[in-house]
Design goal:
heterodimer, A: 127 residues, mainly alpha, elongated, B: 201 residues, alpha+beta, Helix Hairpins, 6 helices
Chain lengths: 127, 201
């Protein structure tokens, strides 16, 4: 067991769970989606991306690609949120569902990332 | 494994598609002749070594913003929004310092900002110096040049003439070809004659 593997698994999983937590619920109801969770999901996703840097293997490259996709979608979601909620405005149904569906796209990428992690772990052999 | 390739600089020189009548312009770029097996390891090592500084920057930015989001402003004003806090920490950590936004801070907020400044400015300076050090690393620089060279060669879609040696004869050949708007690549074992390529006209 190495500490690096623990961090890796932690960030990949936390990115997916936080993202799911934000995404879960009626996409048109802003009450059901905490902006704090969206910000947390973005930060943890960025951390997961950084931790994936510099792996030369094929699976490492796909890991990094999924993370970059999730980052882009979450950044887009946060930008829409920050723009539309500035000055204490209440989010419209359309904007809420836009933000939630952007985070849903990121969730898909994060799920791929978790699947990769599981596959990688289950094919791992002690040598 | 890590032996340095022999210093065999090649020089690419391509006259741009010229309008007749304009003066000739030589374009110049430095490349080492790529090795047989492309060595991209240095780029991955670079990324790997940047993980620490990037993670530190991410952590200090997040914690600084989070603190600002929690501490109320003067006279019970609501704390800044997440975006305002991120904006403030960004321009403070990079020592740009636009001032206290969106209002003059309370004492509690200022205490947090002091802590944020002392940590984030140091971490940013560390990350930038690390980036500079790694970018100047010889093996990384040579890997980057080799990658650029490979990319440029792969993109070549028009025939070019290879001139070996940029001595007296080589120069006059290149000059004559340049006048005829032909693409020329000059290769020389020595760097010094090639240095002249940029200034010859």
């Amino acid at each position: 067991m190495s500490l690096e593997k623990v961090f890796f698994g932690f960030f990949v999983l936390a990115a997916a769970t936080l993202n799911f937590g934000y995404f879960f619920g009626d996409p048109s109801n802003p009450e059901l989606h905490s902006s704090i969770e969206l910000y947390a999901a973005l930060v943890v996703n960025l951390a997961a991306t950084v931790i994936k840097l510099g792996d030369r293997t094929q699976i490492g490259a796909v890991h990094l690609a999924t993370s970059l996709v999730a980052d882009l979608q979450l950044i887009a979601a946060v930008v829409v949120y920050a723009l539309s909620s500035s000055g204490g405005r209440i989010l419209s149904v359309h904007l809420t569902s836009t933000i939630v569906s952007l985070s849903g796209g990121a969730l898909l990428a994060n799920i791929v990332s978790v699947v990769l992690l599981v596959v990688e772990t289950s094919t791992f052999r002690r040598r | 494994m890590n032996e340095k390739p022999p210093n065999q600089p090649g020089r690419r020189h391509r006259p741009p598609n010229r309008v007749p009548g304009r003066s000739s312009q030589l374009r110049l770029s430095h490349v080492d002749v790529p090795r047989e097996i492309p060595d991209q390891a240095a780029i991955f090592i670079f990324m790997r070594k940047m993980r620490g500084p990037l993670m530190a920057v991410l952590a200090v930015t997040t914690l600084g913003s989070l603190g600002l989001c929690l501490i109320p402003g003067p006279a019970g004003a609501p704390p800044p929004t997440a975006f305002q806090a991120f904006y403030f920490v960004t321009f403070t950590a990079t020592t740009i310092g636009f001032g206290e936004i969106p209002y003059d801070f309370s004492t509690a907020q200022r205490m947090w900002v002091i802590a944020t400044i002392y940590t984030s400015v140091v971490i940013w300076a560390y990350a930038i110096s690390r980036l500079m050090t790694l970018a100047q690393d010889a093996s990384f620089a040579s890997a980057r040049r080799a990658a650029t060279f490979r990319r440029t060669v792969r993109r070549l879609r028009e025939p070019f003439i290879l001139v070996l040696g940029y001595g007296f004869i080589g120069r006059s050949v290149v000059k004559a070809l340049d006048v005829r708007d032909r693409r020329v690549v000059v290769v020389d074992r020595d760097n010094a004659p090639l240095e002249r390529l940029g200034t010859d006209n």
